[in-house]
Structure prediction request, 277 residues.
Amino acid sequence: MTGPMRTRLLPAPLSALLTARPTLATTAAALALATALTGAGVAAATTAAPPDYKRVGAEPRNLDQLKAQINTYYNGSTDAAGHHHIGPHSQWAADVATQIGQAKAYLAERLAHHAPRTPAIMLDVDDTSISTYPVNADYDLGGGADASAADAQANADNTYPVIQPTLELAQWAHAHGVKVVFITGRHDNLTTVTRNQLTALGFPIDGLYLRPRQDPPPYLPCGTQCTATPFKSATREYLEHTMGYDFIEAIGDQVSDYAGGYDDRGFKLPNPMYNIP
Prediction:
């Protein structure tokens, strides 16, 4: 996609969850939404997932049906121009709110009873702090050069929707003396874009680390060839040793966001669109 990205307008119910200014009330609303949607309300609020077709022998699941199920999970819809949006009352939003609620409860308990000298949390960016579903769905969840270009444009224009429960957790943590550190698999040519994007959405930033394309810091033994797990864990180790940060938790949409150590507990947000080892 070579033209400018359209601003993605979310339906009012989800907009309140994803883009409203954070308050204790909106945090409570997010958790209430999670509770409400884990029961029978989910079936009424979303389109039923398509049934899996009969497989033969060891035949894998059907790709088209998996894509349809992913769009159902986000309660996805398209506008008149064919652009995708996250729908209201999605199971994805409910699952996010549940996981972030558990992360906040764990953080609050640690701060109350076992607070380290310099507490910190690590957050991922894509599909942890913002949702990339709109562009991924626009390109049939298949990636490619056009999808990458559209992704870059959406980041530059800051049109990806914020994941509101993550924003509220970050602001609550920062207000309670916790360092909020972003460690993302994005490459460091996007440092300024990423900082501007997060700041404009209201995230506090006590640290921002992206994978180096060249001149890697000495604490990265894998250099410019780091995959997500060694890059993120080595960066946490470096911050622990040099800054005294104690990462109470690491939150991301991939296991690689918190694997590798140097965090006390990992919380995984839902992301059925892609896998990053």
Summary: The two ends are 27 Å apart (CA to CA). The chain has one domain: 12-268.
